[in-house]
Amino acid sequence: MTDAGGRRAAPGLVVPTRASSAVVGVLTDLGLRPLVVGGTVRDALLAERRGLPPEPPRDLDLEAHGDVSTEVLGAALAPLGPVAVRGAAFLVVSVVVDGEEVEVSVEPLVAGRSVAEADRAAAARRDLTVGAIAWDPVSHELVDPYGGEADLARGVLRHVSEHFGDDPLRGLRVVQLAGRLGFAVAAETAALCRELLPAAADLPVERIWAEWRKLARRAVHWPEALVALEQTGWLARWPDLAAVRDVPQDPAWHPEGDVWTHLGLAARAAATAAEEEGTDPADREVAVLGALLHDLGKATHTQLGDDGRVRSLGHAEAGVDPARRTLAAMGAPHAVVERVLPVVREHMTHVSVPGRPSGPAVRRLRRRLAPAGLDDWARVVDADAAGRAGASRRGAADAWREVSAATPPTPGRGLLTGRHLIDAGLTPGPVFRETLRAAAAAEDDEAYVDEAGAVRWLAARLG
Q: Among candidates 268, 215, 229, which has minimal Cα distance to 389?
């Protein structure tokens, strides 16, 4: 039962680690009152609701109530491991113990304020009720002054207080959490996010990307994330993504509905596959963003034919520029952009090659995809196939993977180089460039397989 201060018994909710136990010991020795805060408590409650056994947290955030300077706190923690002080509005002292980082923020005492009032005041500065729940590692009590546990049960993201407006980025964080937790956004919170949107115009793009990266690397509930993106008003920042709302698709191929719906399902399929397969986070990022953006070209290249069928001829190539603009507005780094764009451009390649592809077809595709890899492309192709109502079609690219595995790697530099052309009497210019392009195509078609063969090919071409 929860008392008037929002406390209830919760023994064993958070599994202590050696690091967390050591830090809690230091804090209590200093006369401070520690609380475990942040996503650790939220995730522990979700695991408990799902009947999962508790797991030790990877990184822990602690809130220390009491009067102590960061200098004294840092000195007390230093025997445990390397200590750092960071933060702007609120200083945080972090310590790394056996490779585990524990962060401690200090909540100074206020004269005349009770423990319950202090807990409530500290929680009021957090963004959402589901993240404003704390756990007392000494008394093993849950501290929930704003009803976050009830919102967890309802699957609702609701802001705690007017402090939510202190950072306009919190609107995008709501989207990020909707994608990770599969929760709905409370109407009043969505309205507040829309009010804050003008203030978000000046946010550094690095902060925008940090939220998108968490979405790409950690979210599975992409349809819910897109709903939240629209409800909070943040969709307006990515007009090319917004443009696919209500764009029709041929129901024979896409019974799920419009392009917007398909992209959410495709991104979910990519994320789900990545989790099941343990895909590297950087590769998952490319797969999920590629799936989310692969059909943006349909906004401009969808037509209703005289036969009543919906067609989107040329949409793959047409989708490259809107995908580039969207990634730029997300703040995606160059390395991510350079892998996603060729996947968008080539995501229909397998459709134009009936049956099992040949080795040359695979080599040509790999060359066009660079610096993305064929696995990047295959993940998006599979997600595209799986992201349809009633479909669980994984393996759409399996034949291409199999042939690729049996086909020698496509070299970044062809067997025939500019030196060979100069030796043959050519000078740099249009003919020079066209000859190198033709040589690359010939190599992909296995017209030659070694340098000597490349030289013979050149001699035959020059006559």
A: 268
CA–CA distance, 145 with 114 (Å, rounded to integer): 13
Q: List, in sequence order, every residue forming a beta bridge with 105; answer none if it has no partner.
A: 63, 92
Contact 274, 284 (CB under 8 A): yes
Which tens digit of pLDDT belongs to each residue from 72-122? Answer: 999 999 999 999 998 655 679 999 998 899 999 999 988 889 999 999 999
Looking at the 3D structure of the chain, how many domains does it have?
A: 4
Note whether 117 and 190 are same-domain residues: no
CA–CA distance, 241 with 263 (Å, rounded to integer): 9
What pTM was estimated for this model as a whole? 0.88
Which residue range is the domain that position 184 belongs to? 167-234
Is 8 strand, coil or helix?
A: strand
Of 201, 234, 267, which residue is a domain's last? Answer: 234
Cα 441 to Cα 445: distance, rounded to the nearest angstrom: 6
| Same-domain check for residues 17 and 138 | yes
- Say if 39 falls within a structural domain: yes
Judge whether 156 lies within some domain. no
DSSP 162: G
The string of DSSP letters for 334-376 reads HHHHHHHHHHHHHTTGGGGS-SSPPHHHHHHHHHHHTTS-HHH
